[in-house]
Amino acid sequence: MGQVLHGCATTTEAIRRAIQHSQESLRSLSKRYGINPKTVAKWKKRGSVADLKTGPKEAKSTVLSIEDEAIVVAFRKHTLLPLDDCLYALQATIPHLTRSSLHRCLQRHGISRLPDVQDGKAKKRKFKAYPIGYFHIDIAEVRTQEGRLYLFVAIDRTSKFAFTELHEKATTAVSREFLLHLVAAVPYKIHTVLTDNGQHFTDPRGESWTAAEIKELIARKELFRAHAFEYTCAKADIDHRLTKPKHPWTNGQVERMNRTIKDATVKRFYYETHDQLRSHLADFVMAYNFAKRLKTLKGLTPYEYICKLWTKEPDRFTLNPLHKMPGLNMLDLGEGLLDWIEVWGVRGRYQSLAPAALIMRRRAADLWLPRLSMTTMSPGWRTGRSCCST
Q1: Are β-strands 384-385 and 162-167 bridged in parallel, bridged antiparallel, or unpaired?
Q2: InterPro entries from the xrefs (predicted)?
Q3: Is 369 a residue whose pLDDT tops 60?
Q4: How far apart are CA 230 and CA 215, in angstroms?
């Protein structure tokens, strides 16, 4: 059987065993095997012929203190969050924590691997990559004590930037206005929107003009009748795509965002008025866009990803997004932002992350902003509009 010896070893296991069993002097053994007498003495004292492990006998971190490691271990065992999520949450408390030092700490304590919960489940399929400006749009119903509201949601496939509005009606005109508000809100060109086949977005019978056909009719200056949403897409030079009928998972990104919003609002809290829901939703979407660090964006927030892309592909943008970040002179948001942070995340796993999620980074000056304001922001970036159709 082959031996795995230290790279600088001058003896084999057979020689070491012979040294241990020999009664000769150290000098004669060193002369016989051509090694240093100190090496002979070392193996004489050993009880085995195997190399000892190198490095410190007790593994410990040179970056983290004992208290830091205790925080990391307790947090991991309590939340069972993935590595990156643990890193983002703990860096607010332990600023010098890095991904590698966190991983080594979890390995030392035997908790580097989470239990496998994917048995029997189909693997998630990734969305096809598109340039920034591909929005998924959908409508969901929510309720307060005053009655029903329609939640219009749009999310960018690439940047994950979310835009929402609440309306008392879900008509074609409201859908058209929502698209116009979305175009005005984002600082880059929207090239594609994906919706279902509902009458809010298109003719369910498939008898209306498409956006491409409408553009041709406009170019020829012909008279025609078209769906308001399709016409708006054509005027804004947006490619309107439809999902396959009875295949809602095709628009899965916005469906998942709908669930996230409901889990953090109407499924967790009771709202007496529509205004309470509007205020809470505005805080939630604001914090999501400017404070929530996403693994799919490699730890960046949607806003930070947009700013990063601005430096690489400025031609896709209609204005500089760096000018739209809330500044240090913002007014107080109140308690609304804390409310959603306490319930953020899937299955309530982020309930203890309020201090970490509340911290926001200002990209231009790299300053930490503990508070946000909606009141003094540019209207184009008020992502949680309090619109109410009549």
Answers
A1: parallel
A2: Integrase_cat-core (IPR001584), IS481-like_transpos (IPR047656), Retrovirus_Pol_polyprotein (IPR050951), RNaseH-like_sf (IPR012337), RNaseH_sf (IPR036397)
A3: no
A4: 10
What Cα–Cα distance (Å) separates residue 92 from each residue in 86, 204, 246, 356, 360? 11, 50, 44, 5, 11
Helix (H, G, I), strand (E, B) or coil at 227: coil
CA distance readout (Å), 166 to 45, 84, 181, 285: 80, 33, 12, 12
**Pairing mode, if any, of strands 147-156 and 134-144?**
antiparallel
With a cut of 90, say whether residue 12 has pLDDT above it: no
CA dist 291 and 157 (Å) reads: 18
Average confidence (pLDDT) over 120-129? 66
Q: Single out the residue of 147, 82, 140 nearest to residue 259, CA to CA.
A: 140
What is the spatial distance between Cα 322 and Cα 328, in angstroms, rounded to a whole number? 14
Phi, psi of 87 (to 5 degrees): -60, -50
DSSP result, 5-66: --TT--S-HHHHHHHHH--S-HHHHHHHHT--HHHHHHHHH-SSSSPPPPS-SS---SSS-H
The DSSP call for residue 126 is: P
Q: How far apart are CA 233 and CA 214, in angstroms?
A: 9
End-to-end CA distance of the chain: 84
Give the span between the Cα atoms of 41 and 35, in whole angstroms.
11
Q: Which residues contact 17 (CB under 8 A, 6 or more apart)?
A: 49
**Residues 143/245, Cβ–Cβ less than 8 Å:** no
Give yes or no for residue 125 having a pLDDT over 50. yes
DSSP 8-state code for residue 279: H
Average pLDDT, the chain: 78
Tokens of 210: 């498409």
DSSP string, 289-338: HHH--BGGGTTB-HHHHHHHHHHH-GGGBSS-GGGGS--TTPPP--SHHH
Residue in the structure block whose two tokens are 């332990």: 94
- DSSP symbols for 91-124: TTT-TT--HHHHHHHHHHTT-SS-----TTSPPP
